[in-house]
Amino acid sequence: MTHGMRTDTHDQYLDERRDWRDTATRYALLPLRIFLGVTFIYAGIDKLTDSAFMKASGSGSIGDMMHAVRDSSAIPALVDLALKSPVGFGYAIALGELAVGIGTLIGLFARLAALGGAFISLSLWLTVSWAATPYYYGNDLAYLMAWLPLVLAGASVLSVDAALRARRRQRAGTYR
Length: 176
What we know:
The chain has helices at residues 20-26, 30-49, 62-69, 76-83, 86-106, 110-127, 139-153, 160-174. It contains 8 helices and no strands. The chain is mostly helical.
């Protein structure tokens, strides 16, 4: 039985006729991508260039910070694991933030980069900002939630991923 209701609501994308709402929808996650990408690049560079941070002990060091949050974290075992090599952990976090930020900003393996950002934010929320009261004062939880739309949607516009997808479609069209 056929109904009079159309189910092909996205046919305007096939012949490239779009109004401003469609364009706004396509670009809706771009500001979030730019913000998170720039923020994580900045955070990674900030850690790598801060001589006090990349030390096992002392004021402002990763080791000192981890000792301070150990007893108030949700998963003290995770902090203990990082305390076995605080400098190595500091470099891992900084390089991870840098990779996530670059991948997110340019849209290269965007879903994977966003998943990495979500994982970093989750780890920091469960350790560093877990004791924030009320809970919404801990910014790592907000970052975790901000990463989730990018994990689900990826980088559909102005990205390396989109350019590669378009190139694959173009090649597939020439072989038909």
